[in-house]
Amino acid sequence: MRTVLTAALMYAIVLILLRVTTRRIMRSATPLDMAVVFLFGGVAVQPILGTDRSITGALLAACTVAGMHLAVSRLKLWWPVVGQVAEGTPVVIYSNGTWDWQQMHRLRIDERDVVAEMRQNGIRSFAEVQSAIIEHTGGITIVPKDK
Amino acid sequence: MLSGSDDSATDIRTYPGFERRWNVFQTVVQVLIGLTIAAGLAGLFGDGPLARAERAVPGTPLVLRYDRFLRAGYPSQMRVTIARPLDDEHVALDLSADFLEHVSVSATQPRAESVDATPAGVTYRFRLGSERRGDITLMLAPREYGATTARVSALGRTVELPLLIYP
Q1: Does residue A46 have a pLDDT over 80?
Q2: Contacts of B104 in chain A (CB under 8 A)
Q3: What transmembrane ranges does the database entry give (chain B) (predicted)?
Q4: pTM confidence score
């Protein structure tokens, strides 16, 4: 019974904390948001199945993770460099027929990733592409040429 | 904030009233998160400066150091310091039964010479050696949450230690 009640309580706590911590978390895969998801998962499971079965300890740890996320999210509004460090910046890897191979090697992205993204956007050839950008979320944005 | 009438072009239903109330709730929760972290750092949930307590057993050279805030399932310690040499090489510590209903003693350091159950609780007897002083550490494993009082008796004196055990 304890496991069921603890799991239900931790579900409610994590739900509320996720809801008040960030709205973007399920759409965005920035390190800032992923850190919250990973840590919440670990923290919430501990009192349900782990050896430290203290709910107060888990609540305290979850609040600390949420507090850190809120603090860093606010700091990045005041000092953009915080956001650049915590989340990264967009990088242009293809522009007007030219690949930036150095950036692609650094980001471990190859041409096939870009082509796959092009296909998903209904673009069939590079003749239709103005630029390709690796976003700070990890996604690839294809900007089509003006027609 | 945009209202539902501002976005007629995209035909989307918004809930500005709910969003306003949610923003208030969100601010309250964020403040509570900040207070919880501050309380945690201070030791209000155990393991911090506010949690640490020290109590001398009156009329004896025994001093107890313990955490007044414990968490069920999270181990803690109670340290008994014998500051001056005792008359005897042996010392007995009595722990009350109601305290032991909430907290188990998982081990002692040094190992107790004998552990005896009594109607009032459990008596741990330690051999101090020729110096007749030293430190005794009781490893505690809190089990049941709630407020309790640890009655610790030694050398014929009793001291009461109020404790709060969080779930």
Answers
A1: no
A2: none
A3: 24-45
A4: 0.73
